[in-house]
Design goal:
Number of helices of chain A: 14
Number of domains of chain B: 2
Strand content of chain B: 5-15%
Number of helices of chain B: 13
Helix content of chain A: 25-40%
Number of domains of chain A: 2
Distance between the termini of chain A: 41 Å
CATH topology of the largest domain in chain B: Aspartate Aminotransferase, domain 2
Structural class of chain B: alpha/beta
Largest interface: A-B, 14 and 15 residues
Low-confidence stretches of chain A: none
CATH architecture of the largest domain in chain A: 3-Layer(aba) Sandwich
CATH class of the largest domain in chain B: Alpha Beta
Largest sheet of chain A: 9 strands, mixed
Order of helices and strands of chain A: EHEEHEHEHEEEEEHEHEHHEHEHHHHHE
Low-confidence stretches of chain B: none
Order of helices and strands of chain B: EHHEHEHEHEHEHEEHHEEHEHHEH
Oligomer: heterodimer
Chain lengths: 380, 368
Amino acid sequence: MNNVILIRFNEIHLKGGNKKYFTKLLLNNIKDALQGVDCKVENIQNRLLVRNYENDDEIIEKLKCVFGVHSISRAVELDNDEKIIKNYVANLHIDGSFKCNVNRADKSFPVKSNDFAADLGEIVLNNNKNARVDIHNPEITINVDIRETGKTYVFNELIYAYSGLPLGEHRDGLLLLSGGIDSPVAGFCMAKRGLRQDILHFDSFPYTSKLAKEKVITLAKKIKTFIGAKYMYICSMTKLQEEFHVNCSTEYAINLLRRSMIRVANALCKKYKYKTIVTGESLGQVASQTIESLTTTNAVAEFPIMRPLISFNKNEIIKIAKEIGTFETSILPYEDCCTVFLPRNPVIKPKIKDAEKEEGKIDLVALLSFIIDNIEIIEL
Amino acid sequence: MLYFDNASTTKISDAALTTLINASEQYYNPSALYSPSVDVKRAIEDARAFFLSKFKGKPGSTFIFTGSATESNNSVLFSHINRKDKKYLFSAGEHSSIYESAKHYQNEGYNIKFIPLNKNGGIDVDALMKELDERVALVSVIHVSNETGAINDIKTITNRIKTFNKNIIVHSDGVQAVGKLDISLKDLGVDYYTISAHKIHGPKGIGALYIANPNKFKPMILGGGQEMGLRSGTENVPQILAFKTALNGIKINDYSKHKTAILDNIKTEHLLVSDTDCIDNIISICFKGVRGETIEHILEEQGFLIGTGSACNSKAGYNRVLENIVPRDYLSGAVRISFGADVTIEDCADLGRALTAAVKNYREKISR
């Protein structure tokens, strides 16, 4: 009899011919997440298993952050032997309502699922005077999972993780991280769909402080476990913002800035082979997130822009930010690059043509090339 | 890099650093009975005597060494705020270690009053006197404002308070006054006086509290009974001795020419908070239409390290002290310049010129 941690996945089951690939990916991601923790991870037909560990709480906390994991259980591993299983169940102390669930993947096991569940239920009742059966709403569920591998797993609790798909091998996404509440959540949401991402942050030193930059680095470190980030790019927009401010319509300031951000992201995507840009925009949240503003921004994008929060309300975003532990850092009071040159009346329905006209007033190509050449790269 | 942020902290002096290192080797616990420990204990007592003599403490008074000036300040409030029928007065310009502590007691239901400030950040003495009544048990007034350099006349204030009722406890936070003013605690007449090492070229993590009447003090930290039972915890011998070395090394310099050199070279519209009733080496100055934080960063790139007078940030709120004395449109453009003997008059003139250029440049770029 061994204590093990059982890991289940769900969406991977639907992957047909690619199931093997995704399972291997998940196994590798789990091994990465458990690096430095004393344990062994195994693939056992449709389940993954952790054994030979000391601290199960630590392992479970880490597993909960691995996308593709559906649920986790602390279990006991027994041989597929009727007598051994019954003997184990006979020694359980059950106080209150319970039911037994049997899953017989090993069809060579002699007793059918329902019959075996009834047998085990009877054993529990005979050995625990305070136990009573409740198949609809039991306090305790004794799950008995009889696998084709010759091993049976008995467990009670089911700890749910985020599900989704395992993070891909390559860092295909570039997350635009501002320091606010939304963008870390956007990165998290895309990671849940298997998108591994690096991070791009825009900074306006000396108009924003060094502490503001430190805050974003802290945020990046907080979400790196989730999104699988390795590099963070920090791009100073100061020169560009000053030029926009002096030469272009102040109403268009934010719009022009955002178009330039996408252009910087384009350049990084081309150079480092990212396939998509991720932002934390939510429709209508602020002037720069109206359909017209998003359209003017999209017009310069050379890669698809993923906006996972587009339909989210602020409260929904905050809820996730709190859950993933970024909220407290996000609300630290430092200005970000958008707030310094913020116009009093930003244009709500910008036009691509007008934005282009404004950009024509400065030497955008030279300025972009300057700021891209001066990007700072941090290894997270 | 020229350092103009001495009100925030100072560079440890070579002598204090040497003491710190050498004394660290004398690791013996001062409470033990063997002779190396007795030597260490004696060194602490010599330091205590030196502090009392340097600051001219009254007979029967003592100094206790603490972990910081914040601890010293907190422990005075802890010792004396204990009755809800009493009244406790604080200048609105107290350092946050007094202000936040007082706010805590206010939230607990104690009668805490903050006394308004003059335009230079000093306490409005008349307003303070008006608040005095038979319920007042404690008054705390910072000696020199850490924000503006304003000098409060602690001797007169204490005298007037004690004339009204000699039982009122008077505390003063002297962290910014040490090294700038000649201090005689006997003359000031205070019951408590807080000082710190790292503002006078000593190490961080060590402060002290002057206690005029030790039998009236209720200790905040209990334990092994060190520091005459007034502050438990094994004594931080190396830091105490380095504090003594730092104190021994201070010279009260005339910085008026430095101040003039800075101000004469500020040739753009501004509001000077630090007037002639302030010490010369803390200058609080505000510029309309700029952000102090940005000016600080621009100057850093030119080799000057200065402090911001305000968080100048809509989310963080404005500087608590300046908010009460500076018009709103100047608040976000507040900077604090504080210097020591390591800068020359010419450095100060350079800073004034750089500051002028930075502010003008900012206004041209941003104010549209």
